[in-house]
Amino acid sequence: MELNQGLAVDTKEFPGQILQTPGGGIVVSTFDSIINWARSNSLWPLTFATSCCGIEMMSVAAAKYDFSRFGFEVARATPRQADVIIIAGTIVNKMGPVLKRLYDQMAEPKYVIAMGACAISGGPFFYNTYSVVKGADHIIPVDVYIPGCPPRPEALLHALIALQEKIKSGLTREQIREVSKALVLI
Amino acid sequence: MSNEEIKEYVTSIAPSATFDESGEWLNSMVEPGTWKELALRLRNGPLHFDYLFCLTCIDWKTHLTVVYHLSSTTHRHTIVVKAKLDTAKPEIETVSDIWRTAEFHEREVFELFGAVFLHHPDLRRLILTDDFEGFPLRKDFEDPINMIKL
Predict the structure, then answer these.
(1) Which domains does chain A have, with CATH numbers?
(2) Residue B143 to residue A130, Cβ atoms within 8 A
(3) Among A6, A49, A70, B42, which has the minimal tally of Cβ within 10 Å of its Cβ?
(4) B contacts of A93 (beta carbons < 8 Å)
């Protein structure tokens, strides 16, 4: 399936139109789309992995897959410097408040990817347990879900690029919330 | 030391002990009341079981069984000691004063199975939150909020 199917913009190019004029041209665009374009190309993930999906995430960060190529330059060890949190692994009840706190400490705009079966729904092994949160979206809003146990590194790359497409189209949870807030004010 | 010698030694301290050698290690079932004395003698006696490498519990629905895996770093022999506990009143003497590692293991068995280790210095929950109710590894544990019945 084409990745940006149904999304508003063709995201390969700088957003906007070029009006041809003698001796060059003028680029016409909106601030929103330029800001989104800029943000989507510099998304630093938080170093956050609670189980085996973290190994795949490390693999994606390392030389073979290398998510720096797409703007996920380097994983930060503090939420204050991170833009995206990749929930790579099971969230147990005791981890829930920690995850919430990390999310709250991240500067806006912030994005969330739920990686693997555990982060989506509690997982293939531990879902019927007294100790596991049945999906990280019970705690924080998730923009992109990646199925798999664990997902292949390619799947994580696919999700990261999907997140970029979402940001450029203004369709992440946070962006939608901002827009609806503005609408209420009007 | 051979299994026969170990069996003889255990029998001399706990005459009611029964043995099972069908597995990898020598298994012995003892009465909970004789366990503390036996543990002391196993640790300090000639067999020198100085290493408790596993302490766990099994819920058989009818009763609980606490399981102690002991090994000797000098003689290189191993014994598994099991003691049957009553589910309604599961109590056994602590061995945390004999093998320090049992302090954490007994706390874990306490929080997951509800077995009470008498004279344990600090018998609190180990990992679960302090307000957690019930013993989650018991077969009759129910948690309708988080679990579906299978």
Answers:
(1) 43-162 (3.40.50.12280)
(2) yes
(3) A6
(4) 129
Count of domains in chain B? Answer: 1
The three-state (H, E, C) secondary structure of B87-149, written as one string: CCCCEEECCCCCCCCHHHHHHHHHHHHCCEEECCCCCCCCCCCCCCCCCCCCCCCCCCCCCCC
pTM of the model: 0.81
CATH number where B7 lies: 3.30.460.80
Contact yes or no for A132 and B147 at CB 8 A:
no
Q: Chain A: residue nearest B144 by CA? A: A130
Q: Determine the structural domain holding residue B8 and report its residue range.
A: 3-118
- ipTM exceeds 0.85: no
A130: chain B residues, CB-CB within 8 Å: 136, 141, 143, 146-147
Residue A7, number of CB atoms within 10 A of its CB: 16
pLDDT values of chain B reduced to their tens digit, one per residue, 150 residues: 788 899 999 999 999 999 999 999 999 999 999 999 999 999 999 999 999 999 999 999 999 999 999 999 999 999 999 999 999 999 999 999 999 999 999 999 999 999 999 999 999 999 998 888 889 999 988 888 888 877
